Backbone:
């Protein structure tokens, strides 16, 4: 996904001379073409994320469209107050892109995991939170976020995620898309959890769950949630069960007085001490296709 | 340029306004507002290229007032420069009056940034100065910081980046009044040598008496090496201008009584 980010932001910079990329000392060689083409629109801000965000807000206040890019924990929680005050309070069109989100950096340990970024970013007024499922949806999200003229946070993976969409799919902030049609059960897949959700649905031919691609975490697709007729919603996310996408869906259902059952797959309320690759961590957290299918079957049987 | 005696008269008038406002509104942070008055007067009357009738002109010089707790000083200077009617100051901190105790975005004209959480303003100023260069504009950016604020790590993140970006159109002024909310800033953290810290980060730094208007004006106009940001460390007295407020940190939170307002009027020689 990060290669797609570098490629798409280069394309967007060619179309919009206001685009400026700020990197928190990451992306070695990734931005070489960008730097060569736009030497005065790429800045390595060093290992100093708080300043990077304030600086982005200052750039945006003068009419530029800064894009801040580094590893997710460092571009979200590390500099939260700068995001709250300088970006959101002033409603500056700053785009924050966190790479290696969720369990992407499972092997690097909890310092590099981000299980809380959705919760913390979505609580900020004015902020949109987007979690694309693959490299092509990331391109769509980048375009939509830049067009929104408001603060936006995009959480992406790192590299090697399966490509699900042959080209950038139609994407609107606040709208989800159908990924696989079904009935009774609807899996709401957030971000890079979509492949596991689709595989789980394939493994349940008798139930035939529907799968929705939910890249717009804030705002939710309120219209879909408010009108869809299912017995069970299943949210899936590489994020803490506290405050994330599943929590947002639960809040919506409760506020709307909807009695649809909900089960939430996500990361339990503890640090992940076991080292290993992303797929291993997904199994530990019940976020792999088999675990999801099992939970759905059990839930329907109970 | 205005003559120095005239600037001093403006400073006295600003100070008395601040004392009245703090009394009427019962607000804190009077002393920290009084300490930076001369810096703001020198900026707004001799240095900033900014038209009060066009406060959002993209070509304007920008001032990020980073010590937001002292914004009453900025409000007063802006009103006296004609950004909005001075009568508005009588409603400082009143509900719905648009002059909150700490600055808000989209408030009165001339307030560039909602500060109040310390350590943000210089980074924002770095962004503005960089935007000016990217857009080939020639505006200057100024940031006024408190000394306590310089304990925030984010200040030094910005301080170490600005020289590498070659932001010669950026000036920081530190209101070094030697106090913070609950004690001597120089005792709580290793503040000194403050000018040398900026210099070590790559800035062209100078230290001046922050109440000597001639010195402030000179420091603001001095030519420094191109591409190098400027740091002016202004040694000030918290509560400057009124004997019973000066250097008494109780006035970080206190507001003056009617009697004290009358005494201050006498001392400042304001009609």
Residues:
């Amino acid at each position: 996904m990060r290669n797609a980010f570098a490629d798409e932001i280069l394309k967007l910079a060619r179309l919009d001379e206001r685009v400026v990329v700020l990197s928190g000392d990451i992306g070695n060689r990734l931005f070489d073409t960008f730097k060569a083409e736009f030497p005065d629109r790429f800045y390595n801000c060093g290992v100093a994320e708080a300043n990077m965000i304030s600086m982005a807000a200052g750039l945006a206040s003068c009419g530029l469209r800064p894009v801040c890019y580094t590893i997710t924990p460092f571009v979200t929680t590390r500099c939260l107050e700068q995001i709250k005050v300088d970006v959101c309070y002033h409603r500056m069109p700053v785009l924050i892109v966190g790479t290696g989100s969720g369990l992407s950096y499972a092997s690097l340990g909890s310092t590099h995991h981000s299980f809380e970024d959705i919760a913390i970013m979505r609580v900020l007024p004015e902020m949109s939170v987007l979690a694309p499922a693959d490299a092509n949806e990331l391109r769509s999200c980048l375009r939509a976020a830049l067009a929104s003229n408001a603060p936006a946070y995009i959480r992406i993976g790192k590299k090697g995620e399966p490509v699900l969409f042959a080209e950038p799919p139609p994407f609107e902030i606040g709208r989800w898309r159908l990924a696989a049609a079904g009935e009774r059960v609807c899996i709401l897949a957030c971000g890079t959890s979509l492949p596991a959700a689709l595989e789980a649905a394939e493994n349940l031919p008798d139930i035939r769950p529907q799968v929705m691609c939910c890249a717009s975490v804030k705002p939710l697709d309120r219209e879909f949630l408010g009108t869809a007729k299912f017995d069970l919603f299943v949210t899936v996310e590489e994020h803490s069960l506290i405050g994330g996408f599943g929590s947002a869906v639960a809040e919506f259902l409760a506020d709307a007085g909807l009695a649809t059952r909900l089960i939430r797959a996500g990361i339990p309320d503890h640090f992940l001490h076991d080292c290993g690759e992303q797929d291993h961590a997904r199994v530990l957290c019940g976020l792999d296709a088999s675990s999801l299918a099992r939970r759905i079957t059990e839930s329907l049987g109970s | 340029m205005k003559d120095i005696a005239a600037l001093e008269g403006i400073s006295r008038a600003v100070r008395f306004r601040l004392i009245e406002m703090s009394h009427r509104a019962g607000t804190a942070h009077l002393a920290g507002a009084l300490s930076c008055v001369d810096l703001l007067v020198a900026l707004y009357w001799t240095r900033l290229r900014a038209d009060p009738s066009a406060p959002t002109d993209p070509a304007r010089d920008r001032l990020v007032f980073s010590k937001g707790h002292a914004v009453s000083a900025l409000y007063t200077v802006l009103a006296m420069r004609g950004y909005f009617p001075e009568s508005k100051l009588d409603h400082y901190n009143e509900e719905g009056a648009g002059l909150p105790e700490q600055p808000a975005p989209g408030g009165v004209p001339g307030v560039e940034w909602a500060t109040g959480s310390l350590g943000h303003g210089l980074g924002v100023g770095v962004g503005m100065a960089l935007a000016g260069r990217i857009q080939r504009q020639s505006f200057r950016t100024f940031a006024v910081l408190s000394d306590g604020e310089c304990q925030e790590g984010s200040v030094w993140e910005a301080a170490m980046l600005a020289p590498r970006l070659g932001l010669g159109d950026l000036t920081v002024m530190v209101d070094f009044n030697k106090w913070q909310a609950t004690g001597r800033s120089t005792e709580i953290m290793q503040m000194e040598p403050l000018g040398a810290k900026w210099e070590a980060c790559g800035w062209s730094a100078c230290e001046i008496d922050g109440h000597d208007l001639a010195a402030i004006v000179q420091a603001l106009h001095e030519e420094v090496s191109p591409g190098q940001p400027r740091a002016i460390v202004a040694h000030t007295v918290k509560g400057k201008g009124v004997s019973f407020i000066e250097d008494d940190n109780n006035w970080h939170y206190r507001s003056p009584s009617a009697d004290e307002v009358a005494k201050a009027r006498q001392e400042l020689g304001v009609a």
Q: What stands out?
A: Residues 73 and 267 of chain B are 19 Å apart (CA to CA). The radius of gyration of chain B is 17 Å. Chain B has one domain: 4-268.
